[in-house]
Amino acid sequence: MHRFARKKLFLSYLCTKSFHNMQDILEYAKKNGISSTTTRRDLKQIEHEGIIELFYGGVNFIGLKNQITDKEELVENFDKKIIIAQKAETYLQQNDFIFVGSGSTCELFVSRISRPVKVITNSYRILNLLEQNPNINYIILVGGKWNKNGASFYGSFCEESLALINFTKVFFTASHVDHKGNIYKTNEEEARVELAALAKVQTKIALIDSSKIGKTGFYQFYHLDNLTSLITDNPDSIKKKTLAKINII
User: Which residues cross the membrane (predicted)?
Assistant: First the structure.
C-alpha cells in the first residue's frame, strides 16, 4: 500500500476520537495489511506534521493543520489522483525514456509503473519511489540548487543538464488551469525546469485532477494547446471548463 493511502487510512481512524490506545491502532493496521514497524514509522511522520502526539502506549489526535501541505492535499484528492496515475501508466511503452516532474500525482504515477522504463527527474521524492519500483531499469536525478520545501532541484545547472539528455516523453502536474487553458505552477523555479524538459520532446502529458481546473494560479508557464494530452479523473467535466482543444483523457 502506498504511504499516502496508508496515511488516509490512519487519519480516517484517528479522527474518530481524541485518544487511541496504541494496541488498538496496531490491530487496526494489521487488519488492513500494515505491519507494526510501518505503522510506527507512519505515526512518527504524522506526529512530525503536528496532527497527533505520541505517548507511551497511545496517540492523542490534535487535528489537521489549517494550512494544507502537499501531503494533506494528496489525501483530499487521493481517489482522483489514483485514477490519473492508472491512466498515465497505459501511455508508457517498454524502454521509454521519460522525464517526470515533482508533485503528488507524479509520485503516484511512478509508483504504479509496471513495465521497464528509464526515468529522469529533478525530484528527490520521485527518486525514492523509483528506487522501490523493480520495473525502473535506469534512473537519472539531475541536480542544481536545492528546494527544501519541494524536495527538488532547480536552477540553470538543472536546466542545462536536461538540454544534454535525450528523453522522449514528459509527465508533469500543475497547481491550476484556467478556463482559457493557461497552466499554472506555484513555484517559478520548478516551472522553469519543466519548461526545459518540455522543450526537448514532442510527447507532453499533463496529469491534473479536476479540482484544479477552471482556476487561476500564481505562475503561468504553459498552455493546454501545446500538450499532447491532458490526463485527468473527469474528462467530461474539464471539457466544459476550458476552451482548449486538445486530447483530454
Answer: none
Higher model confidence: residue 104 or residue 50? 104
Q: With bands split at pLDDT 50, 70 and 90, how would you rate the model's confidence at 106?
A: very high
8 A C-beta contact, residue 49 and residue 71: yes
What integer pLDDT is reported at residue 70 of this predicted model? Answer: 55
Q: Which CATH number is 49's domain given? A: 1.10.10.10
Report the alpha-carbon distance of residue 246 to residue 103 in Å, rounded.
23
Strand partners, 118: 97, 138
When the pLDDT of each residue in the chain is averaged and rounded to a whole number, the result is 89
Assigned C-alpha cell, 119: 526515468
The pLDDT assigned to 113 comes to 93
DSSP 123: B
State the residue for C-alpha cell 497552466. 183
Domain that holds residue 244: 77-248
What's the pTM? Answer: 0.73
CA distance 129 to 108: 9
Number of domains in the chain: 2
Q: What is the pLDDT of residue 36?
A: 93
Q: Cα(248)–Cα(228) distance, rounded to whole angstroms?
A: 9
Claim to verify: residue 92 and residue 143 sit in the same structural domain: yes
Cell 526545459: give the residue.
Answer: 196
Dist CA 169 CA 201 (whole Å): 6
